[in-house]
Design brief:
The chain has 292 residues and is an all-alpha fold. The protein is built from 14 helices and no strands. Helix 6 runs antiparallel to helix 12. It is found in: Membrane.
Length: 292
Amino acid sequence: MSRKSLFYFLLVGFLWGIPYLLMKVAVEEIPPSAIVAGRTLIGAAILIPVALYRKTFKGAVLGFKFVAFYALLEMIGPWILISTAQKKIDSGLAGLLISTVPIFAAIITSMRGDHTVWQFKRMFGIVVGFIGLIAVVGIESFSGNSHPASIAMMILAAMGYSYAIIMVTTNLPLVDGIAINGLAMAITSIFWAPLAIAQWPSQVTLKPALSLIALGVLCTALAFLVFFKLLVEIGPARGSLVTYLNTSVAVVLGVIVLNEPITIGLIIGLPLVLIGSYLASKKTQSDIVAKP
């Protein structure tokens, strides 16, 4: 990995590790619908002009039905679930639960005919990851440190993420990711705008307002721009490893900035989920080369 690739990798890991911290701050005063509508409005306002400049936006528009379904599974549903859940759970736990995406993705691809998932190493990863997930959910819930319904929301969001990327890359493999995400963000913002306007609070203090702006500019727009540059540099296989850095950043920032506790559930579950996700998403070199 070159210095430039490493810089992109670390930057994406940071940008996708801080949303949980920012959402935790923003949701104190701003309703989840407004958080989702606001961050996607900002994201779309940045990404769509980029796609228009690159002359790739038309491809996303022509595949509108797939982009709309992707928006539902990737943003409309998951982002409202995550924002709502973070009223009740710590940001570090939220990041940890979302790191199960590669595990669910492996299961979904196996159901769609990818038999490489049944290799021992990947199956072992799925089992280890689920043991970690069960440990986190069980320990956090029964110890009274967390909220079971909010944990369920995070897991459902992770499932949505898992299927969304598989679906859109299968149906729109040649369409620019910036264009797809820009249009998806516009759709999401329009979807949640009426409720966001109706629920907008009479007063918002500076810290939550800045958190929402940072969510839109840094975590929603800039992160996608840098991530697709990273994919060009190192490819999707190694690019997906940024998931594990995201989670670590989310947990560390939660502890340092928000003084969130390091619970037994995190201590036991975090390494198991990360190891399981890594193994579940890992293909052998022969599989990668043989794939048409």
